[in-house]
Description:
The chain is an all-alpha fold. Helix content is 81%, strand content 0%. The protein starts with a helix and ends with a helix. 32% of the residues are buried.
Amino acid sequence: xxxxxxxxxxxxxxxxxxxxxxxxxxxxxxxxxxxxxxxxxxxxxxxxxxxxxxxxxxxxxxxxxxxxxxxxxxxxxxxxxxxxxxxxxxxxxxxxxxxxxxxxxxxxxxxxxxxxxxxxxxxxxxxxxxxxxxxxxxxxxxxxxxxxxxxxxxxxxxxxxxxxxxxxxxxxxxxxxxxxxxxxxxxxxxxxxxxxxxxxxxxxxxxxxxxxxxxxxxxxxxxxxxxxxxxxxxxxxxxxxxxxxx
Length: 246
């Protein structure tokens, strides 16, 4: 006779047996994996020790360099930069650049002594502007090209000043190219329309490319109409459209 109770008991027993079997297989697998890892470690113990030691040494060296060398160097560089910035603000560009021996560093000394710091990088920007104001355009370009920044104002300004220097040197194509790079660097309403206009004027006045100039002027009107350049740009557009017969 079919015994329902016995049937269920048998089913449960089979299920429990299966679970025990799977658990045993898992234990065997883990044991096998552990043995393989142990064998690998024993075989490569020397190499692993060397690699681990190298990693520890690398991390330790980096932390030491950052805390004991780089941070104090950054602090000292900023202190040296401060006085040069003061003379820069007073338009004393020669003093700002060269400093005063035995008293304070100028931007050039900060660059030489602290070139790998943030202050050293910023000193390149200042030096480039000093040379630009002093009419030394090639030196200005050299320093401004070394300056790296993601700042939404300083980044475009550096590129735009390179454009100014190239235009002063009579290299109008390079000037227009850098003005456009400056405008694209950041779409803020201060630098973008200013350098779009400078690019347009360079195309119009120097390169005689009126169509390109008109395109840039219209971009100012469409995208930066509420800026100082945007409010004044209609007359530039009207003049070029008249010349182009539009």
